[in-house]
Specification:
globular, six-stranded mixed beta sheet, 318 residues, alpha/beta
Length: 318
């Protein structure tokens, strides 16, 4: 009798095991990848390159769609309210954390299923019009700001990552500036070219070509290492310290998405992040491919959010 029971249990386990290990029937239709900012910026560019590789790896059709507004909150809301079937995914970046911190949303990243984070970007730099008529060096920039508190105009997306970095920068330098809300690169670049704003914090992959053309000037890199062969100082050279935070990018699913779908997606993403093709793209745009999945990604986001929280009151004043 005992042998019979043991045989029955063994056959039951054998029958159950393939079912437990089976991959989900996904992807089985077109996937919508929601990008929270307009075309042409780094958020859009990195998403389209990496997601294109992931689509090939999965053998899936993935359509990237730009949904703009409220520092990415509208796009995040659209994904959060979507059916959790794995066919609507959010690509976002540091401003995803910023939105809830600033009260732009009543939800945050913990209201989603975090798939993974994939890029770190420390290539921000203090960017000015080369013909601004006020300063040519970082020291002159700081001195002008000290002599004219609140007069310098920073341009960028209020509630975005560059807004946070600028607040940190000004706090560390002991200067005050005023903030002009602009919707991404498409508005920031013309404003700086026309001297409607005095400076921004630019991502080198996006703003570097304007430096090379002579239209813009880099006053200081926030990275530890120089981003070009000029004599522009780095933050570490100026202060002896690394700048406290960088920009991250990643993927999120609606809450309660099947973990097996997320795991399958993550496996494809990790392979693509570590591919030579994606590494070459990252080198071109001065960013670092770093894959963190699941709980590791959530722990990383928790650390980033805790750091941001220390600037919440100052940001809310703006």
């Amino acid at each position: 009798m005992k042998k019979l029971i043991a045989l029955i249990l063994a056959f039951a386990c054998m029958a159950w095991a393939p079912m437990a290990m089976a991959e989900p029937d996904w992807p089985n239709k077109t996937i919508q990848m929601i990008i929270p900012f307009g075309a042409g910026g780094d958020t859009d560019l990195h998403c389209r390159v990496l997601t294109g590789l992931v689509a090939q790896e999965l053998g899936a059709d993935i359509v990237c769609t730009n949904v703009t507004g409220t520092s990415g909150a509208i796009a995040a809301r659209q994904v959060m309210d979507s059916v959790a079937d794995g066919n609507t995914i959010l690509w976002h970046q540091t401003s995803f954390l910023m939105a809830s911190l600033l009260g732009l949303t009543e939800f945050d990243y913990t209201d989603f299923t975090t798939a993974c984070t994939v890029i770190e970007d420390m290539s921000s730099f203090v960017t000015v019009n080369a013909n601004n008529g006020k300063f040519d060096t970082f020291d002159q920039f700081v001195q002008y700001a000290q002599d004219h508190p609140g007069e310098l105009l920073w341009g960028g997306t209020i509630g975005g990552d560059a807004h946070l970095y600028t607040m940190m920068l000004c706090d560390l330098l002991g200067i005050e500036v005023s903030y002009v809300d602009l919707d991404g690169t498409a508005e920031i670049v013309p404003a700086l070219l026309n001297n409607d704003i005095d400076f921004t914090l630019g991502i080198y992959g996006t703003y570097g070509p304007y430096v090379e053309s002579g239209d813009f000037k880099a006053l200081a890199f926030l990275s530890d290492e120089p981003l070009d062969d000029s004599d522009t100082p780095t933050w570490k050279e100026l202060t002896g310290e690394s700048f406290p935070i960088g920009k991250m990018f990643g993927y999120w699913f609606p809450k309660d998405t099947d973990p097996a779908i997320v795991d399958k997606f993550n496996a494809a993403v990790e392979k693509c992040v570590n591919s030579q093709e994606f590494k070459a793209h990252c080198d071109q745009y001065f960013v670092t491919p770093v894959y963190r999945g699941g709980e590791e990604a959530v722990a990383y986001l928790d650390e980033q959010y805790a750091l941001m929280t220390g600037y919440k009151d100052a940001l809310l004043v703006q």
